[in-house]
Amino acid sequence: MLGNTDPAAAAPRLPAFTQAWRCVYRGSETDDGRDESWVWERLGAASDVADSDLERYAAALTDLRPAPADQVCTLDLGPRTLLVLEHDTGRVGVLADRFGCGSVRLTDDPAQVPAGEATTEGIVAGVLQPSAELRLLMDALRIE
Q1: Long-range contacts formed by 44-47: CB under 8 A, 24+ apart
Q2: Which tens digits make up the pLDDT trace of 9-41?
Q3: Are 104 and 123 contacting, i.e. CB atoms less than 8 angstroms apart?
Q4: Rg (CA), the chain
Q5: Residue 5 φ/ψ region, left for φ over 0, alpha for ψ in the -120 to 50 degree band, beta for the rest
Q6: Considering the entire predicted model, what is its pTM?
Q7: How far apart are CA 2 and CA 23, in angstroms?
Q8: How many CA atoms lie within 13 A of 25 on its CB side?
Q9: How far is it, in rounded angstroms, from Cα 57 to Cα 68?
Q10: Separation between Cα atoms, residue 23 and residue 30, nearest integer Å
C-alpha cells in the first residue's frame, strides 16, 4: 500500500527536467473483488508546474537525503502528491506522502514501476527525506 519502507542507500541524482506536473492521490477502500482492499485514487486533474517554478523544484530536489532508519512517524494516513518530471529520455516520479513522516519515494517509470522500487542509475530505491522547501512545494497543490 505505501511502497518500499527501507531507507534509500544514497541520495538520488535526478536528471535535468524540462517540464513537470503534479497530481494528488488519496487512499480509498475498494470492494471490487481484488485481493487489495485499498487503492490510491487521483483527486481531480493533473496540474502543470509553471516554467518559472521549475528551477525552484530542481533546487529543492537536490536536497533529498536517505531517510533515517530509526525515524518515528505518526500513524495517520492522508493524501500523497505525485510530481512527474519529464526529461530527455523519459520520466521520473517523485511521490511525497502528506502524512506520517512526509517521506518521498522515487520511480523511474511512474506508469509501471512502484514508487520506491526504482532501478535506473541515480533514481534510488527506498525512502527519502525531503527538505522543508520540497514539502512546501509538494503541499501547495490544493485538494479539491
Answers
A1: 44/143, 44/144, 46/21, 46/22, 46/84, 47/21, 47/22, 47/23, 47/141
A2: 999 999 999 999 999 998 887 776 666 667 888
A3: no
A4: 15
A5: alpha
A6: 0.89
A7: 16
A8: 17
A9: 23
A10: 20
